[in-house]
Amino acid sequence: MDVPKDAQNGETTTDLTIDELFEFCHSITEKKIGLDVAVDKLKTFSNETLCKLLDTISIFDQGIPATSKEDPKDANPIKEFYRILEDVYIPEDVLALEINAGKQDPSLTQASIRCRTKLYYKQVKFNMLREESEGFSKLVTELVDNDADLSANEICNRIFSLIGQFNLDPNRVCDVILECFEASLDQSGEFIDILHELHVNREYITTLLGFKFTFYHDQSAPTPYSIYLVAAHLIANKFVELSDICPYMFPSSDKIKELRQEQIANATKRAKHAEVIHTANIFVEAKAQPLLDSGEATGVQGIPFATVVAQQEAEDLKISENFEENRVLETNQKVGLICALCEIGAWESAKELLDCMPDGFAVSGVPRISRAIATMIEAALDEFYHQKCDSSLRRKSVKRNYSLKLQPSIPKVSDWTDLCELSKTIGYLGPRIGYRPSCYAKLLRLIHVFIIDNKIYAGQKNEDYPEITQMLDSVIIPGMTLLDGNCGIAEEVWTLLQIWKSSHTTRYPELLIQKGKLLGRTKYLLKRLSKESSRQMGRQLSKLCFVYPFAVFDYLLSQVQTFDNFIEPIVESIRYLSNLSFDILIYSIIGQLASSHKQQLNESDGSLSAWLQSLASLTGNVFKRYSAELLGMLHYIINQLRVEKSFDLLILREIVHMMGGIEAYSGLTQEHLEALSGGMTLRQEGASFAGAKNKHACTRLRETLLQGDLAISLYILMAQHHQCLVYKASLNYPLKLTGELVDQCRDTLLQYSEFVVTNLKNSDYCNLVPPIDELLGKYKLSVDMAMSLYRPVFMTEVYKIFHASMEALKMTEKLEEEVETEAEPGEVKEKGDKGKAKNGSSKLNAALEQSFFKAALEQALDRVVNRIGSYFDSFTYAKQLNVRTFCMFWLLSRYDLEVPTNAYEREIEKIRRQRNDLGNNYEARARRKEEERLKSVESKLNEELKSQKEHVERMHMALVAMKDDIFVATTLRSGQASSFLQTCLLTRAVISQADALYAAAFFKKLHIIRAANNVTVLVVDKLFSDVLPLLLGLTENEAASLGQFLQSMMELLLYWRNESVYEKECYNCPGFEKKGAKANEGMILIDVKGFQRLCFKYQFQMGRTFANLLQRKDEDYIVVRNSLLFLTKLLPVFPVVKFIADDLWTIAERLRDQEKGKRDDLSLKTASYMSHLKKRKVKVFESLEFASTLPKPVQSTLLPKPEPDNKVVKKRKLTKTSKSIESDDGSTAKVSRLTTTENGNDPVDPKPSETSNGKKTSSKESQRNGSTKMLDDGEIPPSPMPLKERVSRKVDPKRD
């Protein structure tokens, strides 16, 4: 044997054992070592090692199949290795002797062939585990039962011993190791180490593992999950490549795409089926149980809700049998492998396989995969979460063991950049992160901290880390649906959404299925919801809302819009909702209101739809009872007003009514109207139908309105929209509907302004309201709206100036007293002198106080006059009126003119009765509390009564001092009366009934203070002579308000009609001059008889006007309706003449029958008027009893004359009566009247009357000229002016 040259040179040589040389040869055969490397290593072998190598080759050659050596196609490198040995190291004859030993002997050659065949072919083709069970049984024992805690190297040595001792096939040993690995997955680490020590052939392991997967392709038996875990561990430890094992797995890629479509279709089917719960299959015993499982005695029997849920899940399982989680894992090997990879933490391999499938196929079909991915994400977030979140969130946290077999391949998160990278992994889950609440909560809190730390709020873009905030839309919000009713997380989400706006998507099949299930449970609960079971059902509803609130609320709102009697139980049952659920409820309500698929008007009559009214009522009750977010709803109403939509004002009306306890101004009784003229306490106690006010709700509404300029913005927008309705909406809507919308807008505006004035402090209100010139100029508000808004500011300024003056006076008196105390001791005054001085000082102070108040009033008025001076010139019909008078009229209220003493006394008496009735209705503690409240209210009422009396007295004295400047001395007194009537009295009278009473009170106050150049009779004459034009352009509420004004004015005239009252209060007063009297000619006064004739004339003119309107066929609806409203309001004062009352009854009876079946609402209004006319307790006068002298000849009936019948003429006996009467100018007239004694035609026209000067005039000419020169004829204009063409309510001054 030749010695290597390196050894000859004395270099270091290597000594190897037989085992190492055997492994060396095996590595060459397996191509693990190249021939060039093997040759280089041979150079280092010592002589002894080379001798051992010769022995090793002879043994090793026996294990090589003969066919491998003979096949020329075989690429086994051992033959090339032999050639190198022959050429360089071992002589050819020696090597051939060792290798070919026994070949010359045929028997030895045959024995060698048999041995090789037995070792190779027989073990491959037959199951040696059954034939040689002892060796394999010992092998299994060594692998599974490792009680001695041997290392992997020691176990491998024992395996080698068993292979040698029992002549085991190494490949079969590898298969047994995998089988034991599958049976002992808890020892996965040990088996992986064993495989590493054994240096197994990885291609063979891949083939063997693929054979196991292929065995289950026919699906006769389910694929065990343990195989997935074994494959996952082998892939994770690089024994098997994922690309090599996937071809062995089922199903194919095309089949997976088909399964995805079937999965989506099945989800849709499950969702639809889950919406209905069938309880017929539930056992009878279960139906007899209490309705709920809480153990409470509800008094309601039914199927337990847990039983219903179980029934629903069972039915859902039948539909989704082929898509159930375990079924998918058993039949879809690729999904099962993904699940196993995720559970052991091999995310990169799982991600590679997920990318080859349709989006969401694996994670949606197997929630187990989602939980495993969420576990890896949570492990990556854990340290960063504890670092960033508050101590309050982590003080009880402990180190979690995430039960991962390997360290997850997802890198740890250490900063926000890493979290952005992690969002890509979270994107594979989407909302399915909700399957693991702990991971969901940590991610939610980290996003919350990120938004706060980076000060990213609603409406702002996150430019640095957009992925973090995007997870709100794609993960957090929709993920709540998959949480199992977690109230705590719902509250945290709501807290986050308060500073960040977000939306969610429903493109995930799991959400669709969950929605169907929750909708079915919601239907089941609402079918059994009643007033008695509202609390018990509410608990279950709240749990459902924690999961998917949109599905619950959409169905709930649909039921409310269909059944209005469902509102109260619904409001009672939602008491257990979380803040987030309440927020979503309001969002759902806004969505229903803004839906373009719903008609907000009824097609039949054009009125507001019932669903809108029901939804408005529900909204008001929800905000009253619960602390739901109100700002969003108010912003929605504001946005609707900006686009000129007024239907949603009904929502604001209900909110103010329910939360603020403020009633709408329409439909108030006289007691309520009287209470509205008092102080704040009286208005709250006596002017509301709602009873006790909800203080908490009122406070929430006030605080919400104070955010920004919301309070004033709402008022200004409603005021602008009121004008928009008159000029724009009337072009698109029917006239009746336009009137209703105008009334609704004005009523809501008045109701809202009442709440703001009542509940806001004066300082807050004054800071919010813009100056009066901005309201008129910048915001383009009408005078009535601008003045109404500015009125509280004006009176606050008056008292601010007044109190400043009083404080200065008190400081002066204090200084004077200090000077007096420093006088000499001998200058001591007597007690009587002190009393006289004190009494005189008090009188002086009262006079000074009154002068201070007058000065403050004038100063505040001057400020307003200076601000609106430029705008006043544009008021065409106000030019003949004093601007100070104009401003004073609009800036005062009924509170400034009258003291509602009766209302105060009535409320105080009611409170005292309530205190007396406390004994039996309250417990001791509650009784004391209620008694203290009632005492406080009574004390406030007494203080308000005293304060208002003082204020009214101050205002009266100030007006008395200013009476000479109220009206300007002018020759155009008729035009001045028209301007005052149009721009002041009528314009304010149509706002509301309370304002109508104020207008009448102001008119009366001008008479009481004897205002110079007053136009009392001229105003009254124009008012009652021009009733008809006012009827044609008014809405329903405006007509009712103006009717209230006319009632108050007529009531005042009837009061003055009394002779003694007239002589005392009216005669010789400004304003009672005849029309022909000029300012420079002195006063020509109207006596009491002339005033009585005027009152009769007004009664007759109104009766004739209403009779003509109601007798016309097919008269316009608005005219007839307004006429009936006027007549109803005027019942206490009109008609009071018998023949007018009788004729109106006859006319109303005809109208009722005429409109029946055509315009039923008019027929009902007419019947209502007739009923009230019949029941009223008002004295009715004969004509001559009402007025001692009558005007010039008037008709005795309002009924039309029938056409004469030429065929039949009945004889009648005519009786002629005559009476001399005195007219206004002092002349006498003789009135003739013909009456009949039997039925027939109307009396013939009276003969021409003869005056005292001998001049004859016909009755027609007398009627044309009128009873006096100062009265108009009151004829009906030919073409009424409709509402949509009305610009302002006015009386043309050119008539005079």
Automatic annotation (TrEMBL):
Bias (Polar residues) ranges: 1229-1240
Swiss-Prot/TrEMBL keywords: Coiled coil, Nucleus
Domain THO complex subunitTHOC2 C-terminal span(s) in chain numbering: 880-1173
Boundaries of every THO complex subunitTHOC2 N-terminal domain copy: 541-616
Coiled-coil segments: 901-947
Any one GO biological process: mRNA export from nucleus
GO MF annotation terms: mRNA binding
Biased composition (Acidic residues): 816-825
Span of domain THO complex subunit 2 N-terminal: 80-396, 409-539
Pfam family, one: Tho2
GO cellular component: THO complex part of transcription export complex
Major subcellular location class: nucleus
Region (Disordered) location: 816-840, 1194-1296
Subcellular location: Nucleus
Keyword Coiled coil part of the UniProt annotation: yes
Recorded family membership: Belongs to the THOC2 family.
Subunit structure: Component of the THO subcomplex, which is composed of THOC1, THOC2, THOC3, THOC5, THOC6 and THOC7. The THO subcomplex interacts with DDX39B to form the THO-DDX39B complex which multimerizes into a 28-subunit tetrameric assembly. Component of the transcription/export (TREX) complex at least composed of ALYREF/THOC4, DDX39B, SARNP/CIP29, CHTOP and the THO subcomplex; in the complex interacts with THOC1, THOC3, THOC5, THOC7 and DDX39B. TREX seems to have a dynamic structure involving ATP-dependent remodeling. Interacts with POLDIP3 and ZC3H11A.
Protein name: THO complex subunit 2
Organism: Mesorhabditis belari
